[in-house]
Each structure stands twice: as C-alpha cells, then as structure tokens.
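Each record in this resource describes a single protein on a pair of labelled lines. An example record follows, reproduced without changes.
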Amino acid sequence: MTSILFPDFHERSREVSKYFIFLKSLEQKSTQLSMKGFKENQRIRVIDSELLKTLKASGFLLLYNLVEVTMRNGIAAIFDELKSKGVSYDQVKPELKKIVLKNLKKRNPDELVSSIESISLDIITVGFDKQDLFSGNVDGRLIRNIAKDYGFSPKTDYGKTGDGKDLRIIKDNRNKLAHGFNSFAEIGKDKSADELVEIKNKVVKYLREILENIEQYLAEQEYLASTSNTSPP
C-alpha cells in the first residue's frame, strides 16, 4: 500500500534538511555574507553570533512544524481510508468509536444534520476536522497515546529514532518562542549546529517509522473490531 503520506513527508523533510545544512555551513564559516558597499565594492562578512543563535532557534520552529503536520496528515489518512472503504460505525473497534463520538461533540448539530445521509457511514467522518487535532502540543508521549487510541503501533527502532524523545525539547522550545517566554537568542545559544542536525535526523527517522506503522495499520485493516465478520466493501 502506498499513500500520499510519504511524498509530502519526504518533500517537507528535504526542506528542513536544507535549512540545517545551511545552518551548519554558517557555523563552520564555509558560508559567509557578501555585501555590496560604496561604489558596488563587495565585502565579505562572517555571520554575527547573535544572528546565528536566532537562526538555530528558528530550526526548532521548522522541526515542530514538520512533526505536527506529519501527525495531522497521518490521522487524516486514517479517516480518509475509512471513508473510501465505506467502513461503518458498527465495524470499527471500540476505541475508534469513542474518537468518533468525541469528534461529534465538537460540531454544531444543525451542520451535522445537513451532512448526514447514511448515519452508520457518515458518522465516522462528519465530525472529523484535522485542523482541530493539535495546537502546539505534539511530542513523543502524545504520539504514543494517539497510537494507543487508534490502535496502530508506536514502536520504532530506538537506536535510530530515540523513540521520539527529542520531540519534547522541540515542542517546549517551539512554545517558548511562540508565546514569547524566551528570545530566539536564548533558545539558540545552547545547541551547536551539529547537535541540531543530529536531532533533526532522529526526528525524521522517527516520523518515517510512525508513518510506516500507520500504513501497516491501514493495509491490514487494524481499525476493524476484532469481532467483526464483515469486511468493508
């Protein structure tokens, strides 16, 4: 099974990787600024250390964006699959039924009535809105809880991924910056470019393995109740 998840994930991962490659070259001074001065004379300048700290801190924003959008797309893929397969509410496992009912509670009943034609089918997706899934709160612990709720595996190769432990510092630094609790210079001063690249590599590998787990979950229809004898059409 091949979904649209991986092309989008790979493209976003490449964008993040390019930024960190650039950041590393700035720190190593292999990339410098070329500035035109009086009479078009060019001057070469090394990046200011304070600016470099700001650029490092911005890396946490890029990484968090990758984490959140990847998980949002992963969960959306589950609901897209249920809809495309014509899976009914009666067929899904109890944990998914709870999620469906929680989604419905967030919606305006008047809007739901106009959107439902066959309640056993439409109830699955009519209350789902991927924009409501996350709000600056995604880390490894939350992903493990989500995996438990939906029923896909949270397991990854710890040696390569650290099981997502770096997501906590990414989330915390992102929120400190977003809410103005710390300056960019404060957040960026404690990590070298090499350390940030290492974090990025582990996070990308972790997210890739989580997506693989979701794809396996969909391919093997693990969203169905174990007592269901009826496969979706």
